[in-house]
Design a protein that fits this description.
Blueprint lengths: L2 E5 L2 E3 L5 E8 L8 E6 L6 E6 L5 E2 L9 E6 L4 E6 L8 E7 L2 E2 L3 E5 L2
Parallel strand pairs: 2-11
Antiparallel strand pairs: 1-3, 3-8, 4-5, 4-9, 5-6, 7-8, 9-10, 9-11
Length: 112
């Protein structure tokens, strides 16, 4: 059974940092790309970034380029999402995505 479990969300001040994690199970994690999406209040869910099986970063949204990074640990079956220099407009529920499946999401709120 495929499971994607996000963690690490919370309240962060503008300019701060946060690291999200997505623990995956139920498939051969190391052989697949993984993605992070986000959905802000009143907006559609959008792709933020994808990491390939070999840790190449692709499809990064222009709004986060240079501030957010993605990485993976193929031993721990976990993908990480490092958010730096966050802005209020980064407030959203962040979702891990693989193979048509979504995690439950983790709320990130950027506010002073």
């Amino acid at each position: 059974q495929v499971q994607l479990v996000e963690s690490g969300g919370g309240l962060v001040q503008p300019g701060g940092s946060l690291r999200l994690s997505c623990a995956a199970s139920g498939f051969t994690f190391s052989t697949y790309p993984m993605s992070w999406y986000r959905q802000a209040p009143g907006k559609e869910r959008e792709l933020v970034v994808t990491i390939t099986s070999s840790s190449g970063v692709i499809n990064i949204a222009s709004s986060v380029k240079g501030r957010f990074t993605i990485s993976r640990d193929n031993v721990k079956n976990t993908v990480y999402f490092e958010m730096n220099s966050v802005k209020p407009e980064d407030t959203a529920v962040y979702y891990c995505f693989w193979g048509g499946r979504w995690g439950q999401g983790t709320q990130v709120t950027v506010s002073s």
